[in-house]
From TrEMBL:
Superkingdom to which the source organism belongs: Bacteria
PROSITE patterns: TAT (PS51318)
Protein name: SMP-30/Gluconolactonase/LRE-like region domain-containing protein
């Protein structure tokens, strides 16, 4: 049959109901739906995921639309803020609380094989998580694992290095105002820091063997020439849990240690500050890094799980978050 005859036949029968026309019409509809733009078909799913995310201060990650992971001891978590710099590729590491603000140190990397990069200290207002400034760190501090503050001095840890900054001047100028710098024996890390009275505590990250937390008097840190600070400079030592990522002293002098390694569940440990004995352990979000303690006694922590570098982890919790120690439930 020629094309003209076929068309004429169709026109002659156009007023007759034909079951095949309904079938073909339905098929066409399905085809059009399948050819709809991907973003139109994904929109409901994205809307649903967005609804699964509670309202959290800060800039949410645009590269990953997952809802936050369910975490252990959720009843103890208070305020939560998106970790700063996530969309620019920053991986949060160090944290400390000083005065009325939270400081977070992070380095830029989106590659699981790259563990350092351009590093920056971000300043957050604790009341609402608002980004209130910050400054870049020197190139040698490409993995700033820990922060600690004493008065107006901010200490920054990077394996084999310690940096001391004038914090008010650094925040005011937007550039690091360096007070001093010291090399450190890598036996002490420092992977993280904590300040207690007149001593700065140095902690290494260790996967196996034995780990030790070292306290060095602040007065000795920038004395003694150019030799690296080492275990012999420590006035006190405490045994340290393996996989430790951060430390902080609370208002009563108690010592808290965070533990994490990759995508596994994290932990918090409360230690006797005199002997280092573990008094209690608590399950914590995976990827937990450094710790700080606010004047109200609440702990603050940050997790790298869900940063762009670690976006393939099952755990998605790239937050700065508050912890009420009194609501933690210890492991059995």
């Amino acid at each position: 049959m020629g094309a003209e005859q076929a068309m004429a036949g169709l026109l002659d029968r156009k007023s007759l109901p034909d079951r095949r026309s309904f079938v073909s019409g339905a098929a066409a509809g399905l085809l059009c739906a399948s050819l709809a733009p991907a973003q139109d078909r994904l929109a409901p799913a994205q809307d649903r995921l967005a609804q699964d995310r509670p309202a959290i201060a800060g800039e949410p990650p645009r590269y990953d639309q997952r809802p936050l992971s369910l975490i252990p001891n959720a009843q103890a978590i208070g305020r939560r803020y998106w970790a700063p710099g996530l969309n620019e590729g920053y991986v949060p590491q160090g944290l400390t609380v000083t005065g009325a603000e939270i400081l977070v140190a992070a380095y830029r990397s989106v590659d699981p094989r790259q563990d350092n990069g351009l590093a920056r200290v971000f300043r957050l207002a604790p009341g609402d998580g608002r980004l209130a400034g910050g400054f870049d760190l020197p190139e040698a501090y490409g993995h700033p694992g820990g922060l600690a503050a004493r008065g107006t001095t901010l200490f920054v840890a990077n394996s084999g290095r310690l940096l001391a900054l004038d914090l008010p001047t650094s925040l005011r100028s937007g550039s690091p105002a360096i007070i001093g710098e010291r090399r450190v024996d890598k036996a002490m890390g420092p992977s993280f820091l904590a300040c207690d009275g007149d001593a700065l505590w140095f902690g290494p990250f260790r996967r196996q063997g034995e780990a030790t937390l070292y306290a060095i008097p602040l007065a000795r840190i920038f004395e003694g020439g150019s030799d690296p600070l080492g275990p012999a400079d420590a006035g006190r030592r405490l045994p340290l849990p393996l996989l430790a990522q951060g430390a902080s002293f609370d208002r009563s002098g108690g010592l808290w240690i965070s533990e994490s390694a990759g995508n596994r569940q994290g932990a918090l440990h409360r230690l006797d500050p005199r002997s280092g004995a573990v008094l209690a352990s608590y399950a914590a979000p995976g990827g937990i890094e450094d710790l700080g303690c606010a004047t109200d006694g609440r702990l603050w922590a940050v997790s790298e799980a869900g940063s762009q570098r670690w976006s393939r982890w099952e755990t998605f919790y790239p937050l700065v978050f508050e912890i009420d120690p009194g609501r933690l439930i210890a492991r059995g």
